[in-house]
Write a structure and sequence with these properties.
This protein has 393 residues and is an alpha/beta fold. It has helices at residues 11-22, 48-53, 92-105, 154-157, 216-229, 276-295, 301-330, 334-346, 349-355, 365-372, 375-380, and strands at residues 2-7, 27-30, 45-46, 61-65, 67-71, 77-81, 87-90, 109-111, 116-121, 126-132, 135-146, 166-175, 182-186, 195-200, 205-212, 241-246, 254-255, 258-260. Strands 1, 2, 8, 9, 10, 11, 17 and 18 form an 8-stranded mixed sheet that branches. Strands 6-5-13-14-15-12-16 form a 7-stranded mixed sheet, with helices on both faces. The structure holds flavin-adenine dinucleotide.
Length: 393
């Protein structure tokens, strides 16, 4: 019998497969797509730290960036810039493929066109039912890792609950003229409660996208038309893709012989919807706990609970602060956001934050708390009440 079945060959499932196969365990990845490396609705922005920490192949990097232009609802511009590289834009299709290839090289088997329909946990094994090219097949292993991304029904079937708050991400590849910096657009007319973006990937191409709780298609077409009018987008035909993003985790991310990881576990930054880094961090923790549990032949819920304890210890407070900030931001009017822009630039808060260690591409919590504790901000909001669980300075 195999040791581990991984449901989903996205970057997070492939990373768990790579780590466990590399330790000598028998791993099979069940992926519903026909192959990896197709188009994925994702901008692929990750930090240089993420790239090096998880040994991501340099060949998937399209561009490295150290600045961004942020537009307030009324069009006021703030340029964020740091001397050193802040982010890498990766080719998401090539990334998925290279992560899968690395897992295969480490010894993992991949079964494509294999959507998992159900998972049954027995005393000594898990059994997954797979519909492979119209034929029902069963795969068995000692444990299963659910890495099936947004909206997966599988954790719910196993009684682990559904991932929480969800939004829609929209994105399209466009031809561009004279855009060489990431641009971020705020305001209710662009993406209510969220933001839109234009991310140049090569000299002539960029990704346009946005997040929204409602009518993502409407706002997406509007954003593209506006960028066309500004001469930033020059494509006539644009084909947006849409995908959900989970902003909060399900009730539980483990069970007997089961671990949930990545987007399926809501391991996503609630501020931006970015899930690659947090998913990979959690995948590393999952692999560590599974290794110990397999070695001791103890895959009980009590044993695998250690996985959730550890990832929540590392990410829990960050996710809570970012989710609090997200809900706070969603309630702001365009006028208030513009005023915040003014306060930030007039008081040099942007410069101070850029110089501070607390501002990091991957970790937003400390910078959010620092910003909220600025006296000018508190005065403006008539004292921002930070939740008591954030703790004193
Ligand atoms: C518009 C948009 C932009 C984004 N931009 C960024 C960004 O710039 N940076 C960032 O870090 N994150 C970004 N994200 C989020 C990022 O894409 C996800 O966090 C990341 O893909 C999570 O990886 P995953 O492996 O958990 O899930 P996925 O990438 O969704 O992979 C899940 C895999 O499981 C397979 N699968 C699903 N169900 C089954 C089943 N029943 N049986 C078999 N296989 C199954 C799917 O086919 C898929 O291959 C963005 C998301 C969106 C929507």
């Amino acid at each position: 019998m195999r040791d581990i079945l991984v449901v989903g060959g996205g970057p997070i499932g492939s990373y768990v497969a790579f780590r466990l196969a590399g330790m000598g365990y028998g791993v099979a990845v069940l992926e519903q797509k026909e192959k990896m490396g197709g188009r994925v609705c994702c901008t692929g922005i990750i930090s240089p730290e993420c790239l090096s920490a998880f040994g991501i192949d340099d060949s998937v990097v399209l561009r490295r960036v150290n600045s961004a232009r942020i537009f307030s609802p009324s069009g006021r511009l703030t340029r964020l810039w740091r001397g050193e590289e802040q982010a890498c834009i990766i080719d998401r299709a090539a990334f998925d493929l290279s992560m899968a290839e690395r897992a295969i090289d480490a010894g993992a088997e991949y079964h494509f066109s294999s959507p998992v329909r159900s998972i049954t946990v027995k005393d000594d094994r898990v059994v997954t039912e797979v519909a492979q090219n119209g034929t029902g097949l069963e795969f068995e292993a000692r444990a299963v890792v659910i890495a099936s991304g947004f909206g997966s029904r599988l954790p719910g079937i196993l009684g682990l609950g559904k991932a929480g708050d969800c939004v829609v991400g929209a994105q399209a590849e466009v031809a561009t003229a004279s855009v060489d910096e990431i641009e971020v657009y705020m305001g209710r007319e662009v993406a209510p409660g969220f933001f839109g973006w234009l991310v140049p990937t090569t000299q002539k191409k960029a990704l346009v996208g946005l997040l929204s709780r409602r009518r993502a298609d409407f706002y997406m077409r509007k954003l593209i038309s506006s960028l066309r009018e500004q001469g930033k987008v020059i494509s006539d035909e644009v084909e947006p893709g849409y995908r959900g993003i989970t902003l909060s985790p399900p009730k539980r991310t483990y069970g007997g012989r089961v671990i949930v990881v990545g987007d399926a576990a809501g391991q996503v930054k609630p501020t931006t919807g970015g899930g690659i880094y947090l998913g990979l961090l959690s995948a590393e923790i999952a692999a560590k706990h599974l290794k110990q549990a397999l070695e001791d032949d103890d895959l009980s819920p009590g044993r695998l609970a250690g996985y959730e304890r550890e990832w929540k210890k590392k990410l829990g407070q960050e996710l809570k602060i970012c989710y609090w900030a997200r809900r706070f931001y969603e309630k702001l009017s365009d006028k208030k956001i513009d005023q915040i822009f003014d306060i930030i630039t007039a008081n040099g808060i942007d410069e101070a934050l850029l110089k501070a260690d607390s501002l990091s591409f991957d970790w937003h919590g400390r910078a959010i708390v620092k910003l909220a504790r600025q006296k000018v901000m508190s005065r403006f909001f008539n004292i921002i009440r930070l939740p008591s669980w954030i703790g004193a300075e």
